[in-house]
Each structure stands twice: as C-alpha cells, then as structure tokens.
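User: Show me a protein chain along with its predicted structure.
Assistant: Here is one chain, sequence first, then structure tokens.
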Amino acid sequence: MGRYIIRRLLQSIPVLLGATLLIFTIVFALPGDPIAALAGEKQSNPNLVAILRERYHLNDPLLLQYWHYISGVLFRGDLGINFSEVPVSQLLAGKFQVTLNLALTALIIEALVGVGLGLWAALRRGKATDTMILASTLLLISVPTLVSGFILQYILGVKLKQWTGADIFPIAGIANGLRSYLLPGFVLAGVSIAYLTRLTRTSLAETLRADFIRTATAKGLSRRRVVGRHALRNALIPLITFLGADLGNLMGGAVITERIFNLPGIGLQLFDSVYLREQPVVVGIVTILVLIYIVANLAVDLMYAVLDPRIRYE
C-alpha cells in the first residue's frame, strides 16, 4: 500500500505541472496590462509601471515567468504575491475555508439525497415513483444554477421567512454559521444530485440482477440484508468515484453560487482575479484545486479496497 501511495504521488507531479502551466498560459494570453489595470481610469506613471513590471517579472518570457512561480510552489511552498504585495496564501486563507465549507455541505447533501433517491428508484424501477424521480432529475439538469439559485433564494430564503416567521435558510453572507451554507449548498449540489441519483439507480439495478444477488436471495436472506449488505456495497464503487471527483468540481464551480448568496469564497476571488489579470492569484487557486483533485482521487482509490476485497495494490 505504501509503495502504491508513493507511486501515485509521483504520478501527480506531471498533472500539477501541466494544469498550472495551462492556466498560466491562458492568463498570460489575456489582453490588457495588469499593472495599468491597478490604476483604474487614472493615468499611470510610466516609471512606476516599468518598476512594477520588472518587480513581477512581467517583462520575462512565458516559460521564465512560469518557472519563477512553480519553483516557489515546489521548493518553498509559496504561492507568490499579488500585485498589491499581499501573499496569495494569506489572501486565500479565509476565502478557502468558506468555499471548503460550501463544497463539503454540498457534497453531504448530494450524497444523502442522490444515493437515497437512486436507491428508492432502483427498488421501484418501472413504477410511478421511478418515473417521477427520473423526471425530477431531468428538471434539475435542465435548469441552470443561476436560475435555480435565485428561485430557491426567493422561495426558501425570503417567502418562507415571511410565511413562518422563522429564518430557517438565512441568505445574508456567512453571519449565521453553518446554517448559511444549507441553501447555497443545495443549489450548488443540484446538478450533481441529479447525476448521482441516476448513477445510483443504474448501478444498483445492474447489481440486483447479478448472480450472487440471486444466490443470496435463494439462501433465504431478507430483502433488506440482500440490498444493504450485498447489492449496495458493490454498487458503491462508481458512486464513490463520482463523489471523489465531484469535490473538486464543487469547489471550482462555486463562482455563481457564491455571487448569488454573497459568500466571500475563492470562487468569487477567482472571478475578480481573472478580471484584473492577477496571474499569481488565479494560478494559486488552480494549484490548490488540482491538489484537492489529486488527494480526493487517491482517497477514492484507497477506498476501493475497502468496498471490494478483491482489489489489491501490492
């Protein structure tokens, strides 16, 4: 197991280099001068602009700029500084916690609702309940997050408070602690819930038709034990794979959700940094997201051995 983990970590280095180089190239190719953007509509001092461009290596070729950045990440664990002399790690510290809380809330909601609905649909395949769940998931997939976010914010965050007098789903920032993440977490997880529901339904339905399930049923085991201990455990492998990969998707795709619910996370920071062409901040956020992807995929691979004893890594 130890050798497998080391091998996977070594394999992740080219992934990290490739992803950061790609985003660095994209930001480098954006039109406009990031130093001139700092002055806004005011006239920039040419001498000061020249000093700042030299300070941030903006006059260097692309690959040399990238080397200055990636060498700091690999050898010093330094994500660099933005054009206002603020360390990127310090800038993202609090914002990362907000986005992580939002993503974990969405992941928990997605797992509970998606697997639950998928299990229910698989056990009632072909019936009215199954059809209703499939239609609901299709609706979730079809409606953009921008639309569903505002609708749920209005109904659950505004109207529900007027009807009940209780602020069940607060929508103003993060002042109400974890309760503030419930509604945006559900909005962020909406599309993933639909996909996970359909994946659970398909995976469990196929497992229920397997020979070992028929054998377990023939031995006289109860329906609950056959489904819960045998069928569901084997059907979890593709679901765990989906959830592991989706954690990075939830963190990287929180831009719209954070803007709708006024959450000061890295999604909102990424949007502003792309607009201002702040290369260190944009690439720093992407670097963090790539590392999360790598760790999540490694954890998923290790969980395979727990779910399926036939899988060995040595």
